[in-house]
Amino acid sequence: MKQLEEIKVAEPDIFQKIANHEQVVFCNDPTTGLQAIIAIHDTTLGPALGGTRMYPYKSVDEALEDVLRLSEGMTYKCAAADLDFGGGKAVIIGDPENDKSPGLFRSFGQFVDSLNGRFYTGTDMGTTTDDFVQALKETNFINGIPEAYGGSGDSSISTAHGVIYALEATNQYLFSDKRLGNRSYVIQGLGKVGYKVAEQLLETGAELYVNDLNKNTVQLIKEKAKNTNGTVHIVDCDAIYSVGADVFIPCAMGAVINDQTIDQLNVKGIVGSANNQLQSSNHAKKLQEKGILYAPDYIVNAGGLIQVADELYGPNQQRVLEKTKAIYHSLLDIYRQANMYSITTVEAANRKVQESLALQRSRNNFYARKRRPKWNVRE
Ligand code: NAD
Q: Nearest 10 degrees: CA dihedral of 295, 300, 301, 307?
């Protein structure tokens, strides 16, 4: 009886926290040390899809907060990219440098399998494809696996393609000319995505201002430029925000658009792959007031997600490329809607997602209504 009373006290708190989510699963395996949380936000459009992050969270509360926030973001990303998937995410509490073992990921794979296809997952911050090769031994509900295991391989290629289509849409909207070559761009971060975007822009003859903490990649892109019609200027990290150019392409870390950087920015548009570029939602409004066109990050960087979702049909790079092209029209539509209704581009993107979820829900209800009499007869 005492136990029941305790549960009653605990319930409202946890259920309030997960009120926007369909299901949250706590995974505990003392043998391997696995402590993980899987959050399924919304499966209106299909099974939940989202990566698994491994991070040394300081508390379970912190991990829960992160997985709830990230899984909700995945619902938006999947809907915006027109994928038949809903939003989910998982977090493993632990230090990726010290706490990994093949057994831990096999154990995690078993928990994923227990959801029987309600949740598909793969790599995220702190996890690698090697980790998910272990999970794959226990479950088929894994995406983004290496080509050697029948997967589609490096998804940053598709993410970079998506950024290129988003740049074309932005040029079309801003300059009524989608060509990339006769413009200047500032690229922050020349990692897996940024480097590929820089390479493709150089091939078109564009002028680039670049920086990266890693001096080797900066040198590599400078060398690369010599065999193209494009040019590369190397910029100090601190000076990157004030460079005068057509478009800023953030491809490093989040929260780079904030009060300090908006004051410095000297570009007409922002189109990058980095996640969560805006430090807070009111920075979309500030950019609009300054006359800078902002391409919502979750629209621009969806190429990799499109690729891993498409893996379910078997790997096919050409098909993924075709699907990724949709980013061009989707972004142009968002720009036009934002202009028409005098709202920010982020509001326009979110509105588009909410409309497609509502449409799908009404379709689901239609089927539910049709099925209901049958159930009644059986009862
Ligand atoms: P990455 O780790 O390969 O590259 C990031 C690069 O940014 C590194 O070269 C790093 O040295 C550089 N960097 C870090 N801090 C910097 C700073 N202050 N100034 C300049 N350079 C800095 O990552 P990635 O896969 O290329 O992803 C880039 C961004 O895009 C990340 O925010 C990521 O979350 C996001 N993203 C990536 C994918 C993908 O398919 N890889 C998909 C969606 C979103």
A: 170
CA of 193 to the centre of ligand 1 (A): 7
> Contact, 142 vs 308, CB < 8 A?
no
DSSP code of residue 147:
G
Nearest to 125 by CA among 14, 50, 232: 50
C-alpha to C-alpha distance for 302 and 281, rounded to whole angstroms: 20
Q: Mind telling me the catalytic residues?
A: 89
Residue to probe by mutation, ligand 1, list 154, 157, 163, 251, most atoms within 8 Å of CB: 251
CB contact at 8 A, 303 and 160: yes
CA angle, corner 357, sides to 352 and 359, nearest 5?
Answer: 95
Q: Is 192 in the pocket of ligand 1 (CB under 6 A)?
A: yes
d(CA 60, CA 272): 32
Residue with the smallest CA separation from ligand 1 atom 40 is 156
Distance CA 104, CA 132 (A): 11
State the average pLDDT for the chain.
92
Q: Is 276 in the pocket of ligand 1 (CB under 6 A)?
A: no
Residue 261 Cα, ligand 1 centroid: separation in angstroms? 18
User: Ligand 1 centre and the CA of 270: distance in Å?
Assistant: 16
- 123 alpha carbon – ligand 1 mean position (Å): 15
pTM: 0.90
Contact 118, 43 (CB under 8 A): yes
Matching residue, tokens 């990692």: 191
| C-beta of 190 in contact with ligand 1 (< 6 A) | yes
pLDDT digits (tens, 9 = 90+) for 144-199: 989 999 899 889 999 999 999 999 999 999 999 999 999 999 999 999 999 999 99
Whole-angstrom distance, CA of residue 59 vs CA of residue 179: 49
Cβ neighbours of residue 136 under 8 Å, at least 6 residues apart? 109, 142, 145, 149
